[in-house]
Amino acid sequence: MENELAEIKKLLQADAETNSEFITQVTALNKNVELLANTPAQFSQVNKSQKEKESKEDKLSAFAKILGTAK
Prior knowledge:
Blueprint: H1 2-70
């Protein structure tokens, strides 16, 4: 009886470790899914910022050309 209880205890501990590992992996997967879900919005913001920067550079370049020809 004592050996059976010891065996059951070992099995329960192994099961608890497996469950803990599973929870850790699921948590990591959830974080990855969250990052992936946010990625399009981040790219959209980067693209918007880049376009705004290019637009400002184009305006400055045009203004510099005007100043250069006005001299």
